[in-house]
């Protein structure tokens, strides 16, 4: 978080300290999703506020941005928090679970990215081999 000390300093020492405390407060260092996981399942008024606010948001068109948007919206939806019992310890806690359709989309995107990474690696390797003299290319094929 950036604190513009020059501008706040012109307002006097008390205002400067107040602005500094507010800007550097620990709760301001958390992302909305991190706060949501703590507040949304427990506070219905905040959950209702988030639900109304989300209706005004516009879903991005690009696939990756749209999925990230859907993840944020799912995090702000209290219906996606369920009781979970740790099988090892038996401890119970409230946990976030992705909706099935969103989980499938995330999985699909991750698989596509793995495929993209593989093809990028193969293309980079082919390009670097093409730049080598023929003798070195033949030697690399034996060892790679």
Features:
mainly alpha, two-stranded antiparallel sheet, 2 strands, 7% strand
Please, could you describe this protein's structure?
The chain is mainly alpha-helical. It has 3 domains: 1-30, no CATH class; 31-97, no CATH class; 100-144. 63% of the residues lie in helices and 7% in strands. The chain contains 7 helices and 2 strands; from the N terminus they run αααααββαα. The chain has helices spanning 5-9, 13-23, 32-39, 44-56, 63-75, 100-130, 134-143; strands at 81-85, 92-96. It has a two-stranded antiparallel ribbon. A hairpin with a 6-residue loop joins strand 1 and strand 2. Helix 5 packs antiparallel against helix 6. The two termini are 48 Å apart.
C-alpha Rg, in Å?
25 Å
Structural class: mainly alpha
Uncertain parts: 139-144
The count of β-strands is 2
Topology:
Elements: H1 5-9, H2 13-23, H3 32-39, H4 44-56, H5 63-75, E1 81-85, E2 92-96, H6 100-130, H7 134-143
Antiparallel strand pairs: 1-2
Offer a quick outline of the entry.
The chain is mainly alpha-helical.
């Amino acid at each position: 978080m950036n604190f513009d000390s020059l501008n706040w300093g012109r307002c006097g020492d008390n205002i400067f300290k107040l602005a500094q405390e507010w800007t550097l407060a620990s709760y301001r260092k958390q992302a909305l999703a991190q706060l949501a996981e703590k507040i949304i399942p427990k506070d219905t008024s905040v959950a209702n506020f988030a639900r109304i606010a989300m209706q005004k948001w516009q879903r991005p068109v690009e696939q990756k941005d749209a999925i990230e948007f859907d993840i944020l919206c799912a995090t702000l939806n209290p219906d996606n928090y369920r009781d979970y019992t740790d099988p090892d310890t038996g401890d119970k806690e409230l946990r976030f679970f992705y909706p099935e359709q969103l989980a499938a989309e995330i999985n699909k995107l991750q698989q596509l990215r793995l495929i993209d990474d593989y093809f990028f690696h193969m293309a980079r390797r082919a390009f670097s081999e093409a730049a080598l003299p023929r003798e070195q290319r033949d030697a690399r094929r034996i060892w790679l």
